[in-house]
Amino acid sequence: MGELVWETTLSEPYVNPITSLMISGSDVHFLCMDKISLGTYIMKIDNANNGAEVTDYQADLVYPLASSQTPDNGILLLSYDRNMRSSKLTKFNSSFSITWDNTYRVIEDAEEMLVAHLTRSGKTLPFFTGTIGNGEGYFANALYNYSLAL
User: Does 78 score more than 70 pLDDT?
Assistant: First the structure.
């Protein structure tokens, strides 16, 4: 079993870190949300200073819910677009540029349920993303057409 080397709590505006870590060379990244704008930060863990630094910020990708690393060292992000009432699956390349995205209509307003999930004041929902094979396909457990669907 591993031993805890160090831990830190990031100050605002960084909230709701997504639990998956992405490794690129010697760098380790994770995603989190901006407390005010709800946008998505890509953060790099800074071992030298026991903290994290911003690598990229995506203001248009709000409510980040799940992420995973792809075989090409990219990132697959599941987020929720509150204005369009849609789940969004976004693929980043290894340089953190968006290569594609797809939206999936939720139809109903799911924001209250998502806020409860993110603040841990309600049901925790099983959001996740992943890759099939070497990137031939991608999947996500997301809100879609009135339900939580894969």
Answer: yes
